[in-house]
Design brief:
162 residues, alpha/beta, Glutaredoxin, seven-stranded mixed β-sheet, 5 helices
Length: 162
């Protein structure tokens, strides 16, 4: 799976940023449970967010140019929506370490809860095609948006979830 993410990232980077599309996890499906770790190494599961508030989740990496391009949009949306929607970041484990991700999150002030996909469980269960992949699900845990790339209309995606 890790090789596939790297290959898909190269294709997305070469083709330019993509918009909203039906990629990865199917629209209308339930958000999968997936084992991840906190940046301190404690086990966690992404299912903890289902049934509480809408969620915007990005699968990202420190080395991803599309993720860097999307970062200001995520930060702005987090400031605008505050507690109305949870922001969750899942750092992929390709060429990453939890320590490197933790330092990046602190330096860049990334919003929300940040996790590390140590074993690729979340990447597999969400069928992540590449980094800068965003999944938005509503309070009931139904996927209402998936998108890929540095230029995504997160405002419209969030409105679908609220």
């Amino acid at each position: 799976m890790r090789i596939l993410i790297g290959a898909a990232l190269a294709l997305v980077t070469a083709a330019g940023a993509a918009g909203a599309q039906d990629l990865g996890v199917k629209l209308g499906s339930s958000a999968p449970d997936a084992a991840v770790t906190t940046l301190e190494g404690t086990p966690a599961n992404l299912s903890q967010y289902v049934g509480k508030t809408p969620v915007i989740m990005e699968f990202w990496a420190t080395w991803c140019p599309n993720c860097a391009e999307l970062e200001p949009t995520l930060v702005s949306a987090a400031k605008k929506y505050g507690e109305k929607i949870r922001f969750v970041g899942v750092a992929v484990s390709v060429n990453e370490t939890p320590a490197r991700v933790k330092a990046f999150v602190a330096k860049h002030g990334l919003p929300g809860d940040q996790y590390f996909d140590m074993k690729g469980d979340a990447t597999d269960k969400y069928d992540v095609p590449a980094t800068s992949y965003v999944v938005v699900f509503n309070k009931q845990g139904k996927v209402v948006y998936t998108g890929l790339g540095g230029k995504q209309d997160l405002e419209a995606a969030i409105k679908k979830a609220l």
